[in-house]
Amino acid sequence: MDVMLVLILVPMLVVIGNFICVCFYIRKKWKMMMKKKRMRRDAEAAINGGDSLDPTVNNLQQLNHESSSSVIGQNLFTYEDLSRATSDFSDSNLIGQGGFGYVHRGVLVDGTEVAIKQLKVGSGQGEREFQAEIQTISRVHHRHLVSLFGYCRIDSLRLLVYEFVPNKTLEFHLHEKGRPVLEWTKRMKIALGAAKGLSYLHEYCYPKTIHRDVKAANILIDHSYEAKLADFGLARTYLDTDTHVSTRVMGTFGYLAPEYASSGKLTDKSDVFSFGVVLLELITGRRPIHNSQPFADGGSIVDWARPLMIQALNGGSVDGLVDPQLEYDFDISEMKRMVACAAACVRHSAKHRPKMSQIVRAFEGNISIHDLTEGSAPRLEEIQEIGI
Ligand SMILES: Nc1ncnc2c1ncn2[C@@H]1O[C@H](COP(=O)(O)OP(=O)(O)O)[C@@H](O)[C@H]1O
Ligand SMILES: [Mg+2]
């Protein structure tokens, strides 16, 4: 009798126990689902309900929902605010036309000047860019990184609202036809500013960020020639534990690090390489790729400049390298410093490239050229060894 009771009771208890566990599990899942749904609804309401917001930047309502959508937590603008600010996105206010859409200058009702980037509609890439810019740029606050004031997202339209940086880009000042020559002191100032911005992204903000599109056209300049790094549409975050991030190769031809271009292996050192290319532009006045001024063997600015940099760093002259338009109007020790930084940044081996904070210190004169190049300036044999 007792045995019978046990034989019946035990399986019953097991079944009841399992049933209770399943109920708890379903209840928990249901609660989580409802919470997610509620958060998504709040997010949508926040995004689409911008019409009621005060249109001035200072009074904009800050939305700090717990984020189910990564765009929450930024200032919202209505399309009408932005249309008014740009005279209906008129051509006279068009200041840029990049790979991902149009940029207009605008003035908000409180007089704040802004730059408004309208991402191309309908592409998945556009949406990814939008998310990446908001995620990255709203976390980072630095004098040498362009600030994001907010955004507008309505139907398929995606607009980003930035502080306005009034004096165009480094590309414009260096390469646009008919421009006065960009003075050496300004080149130094721009290089240092951009290096500080990038160093902050790589080493001091959390999570650390790789810009992925460092180039002269993405370095904005203000009236006192302070540089501000812009265009975070391709930016990727990474953790200290990541050795690299694998990704589809994006960025701009002529600036891509070799290991990234060939295998999509992305690290902060990919940005360091691109920054080295920018330094080469500042030193030589040449574009990284130029149809009317091709480099020997159809190679890149890096291949062309490498032997000249080595010669300069081993006590030779900088003549063949330096922008002739400068007409020798530069400080030679500063020039050598920049050449040493460029040479170190464009090293073939990513792990031998310096960190951006080392570049900053080198520009500020707090680290010797020898420390930057690990005790010795690169020699020609080294280059041949790595098969360049
Ligand atoms: N904050 C800004 N202030 C002034 N001009 C800007 C600003 N942001 C972008 N621009 C102009 O618009 C151009 C394209 O912007 P960018 O953010 O680089 O977009 P894209 O992804 O299309 O390259 C820039 O090269 C610059 O001329
Ligand atoms: Mg750009």
Automatic annotation (TrEMBL):
CDD domains, sorted: STKc_IRAK
Question: What catalytic reaction does the record list?
Answer: L-seryl-[protein] + ATP = O-phospho-L-seryl-[protein] + ADP + H(+); L-threonyl-[protein] + ATP = O-phospho-L-threonyl-[protein] + ADP + H(+)
Membrane topology according to the record:
Single-pass membrane protein
- Name the domain of life: Eukaryota
Q: Does the keyword Zinc apply?
A: no
**Which EC number(s) are documented for this chain?**
2.7.11.1
Print the keywords alphabetically.
ATP-binding, Cell membrane, Kinase, Membrane, Nucleotide-binding, Serine/threonine-protein kinase, Transferase, Transmembrane, Transmembrane helix
* Signal peptide interval: none
Main location, first listed in the record: membrane
| Stretches that traverse the bilayer | 6-26
Q: Which residues form the Protein kinase domain?
A: 89-373
Location in or out of the cell:
Cell membrane
What InterPro entries does the record tag this protein with?
A: Kinase-like_dom_sf, PERK1-13-like, Prot_kinase_dom, Protein_kinase_ATP_BS, Ser-Thr/Tyr_kinase_cat_dom
Listed binding positions for ATP are: 117
Q: What is this protein called?
A: non-specific serine/threonine protein kinase
Recorded source organism is: Camelina sativa
